[in-house]
Here is the input.
Amino acid sequence: MISQQGRITSVDQQEVTVEIGGVSGCPACDSGKGCGAGIFGRLLRNRQAAIQLPNTIDAVPGQAVKLGISEQYFLRLVFRMYALPLLAGLIGASVGFSLASSGNHQGLALDVWTLVAGIVAAGLVMIWTRKTLREFPGQTAVHLLMNDDTDKAIQCVTLSETRQDTR
Here is the structure.
């Protein structure tokens, strides 16, 4: 499970709002060798994000928690967002090249046909996957987890605060 630390900001009936991102972790986390917070931080461009999830762990406001996403789900998203459009773009470019070649196009016209066909094919696949593919209908992909390694989180924060104080 890929995890990210967050903090509960509010609890409404059966749901909690968890805030993640915006704060840099320790140097190990930032380099991708620690708990993984640095990876999520770079993806979110260090802006805070709020996520609403079912309160499955009886969390309270201010509590540090972890959000988790399974590796299997993550790989499916990577395949869907990168591999499918890439394959479609390559196939579209091949078809565009073949059509342009059979139409006796040469030089720049051949390149333009190839480029346009590749971009159109990749774009159509991206639109199709957004509208039709759903990984887990009726379920959330992100899960709220107890923060079982608060000692590590405290050590990371203490280490980064110490480094800032010495400057």
About this structure: The beta strands are 2-12, 15-20, 49-54, 64-69, 143-146. Residues 2-70+141-165 form a domain with the OB fold (Dihydrolipoamide Acetyltransferase, E2P) fold (CATH 2.40.50). The chain is about 50% helix and 20% strand.
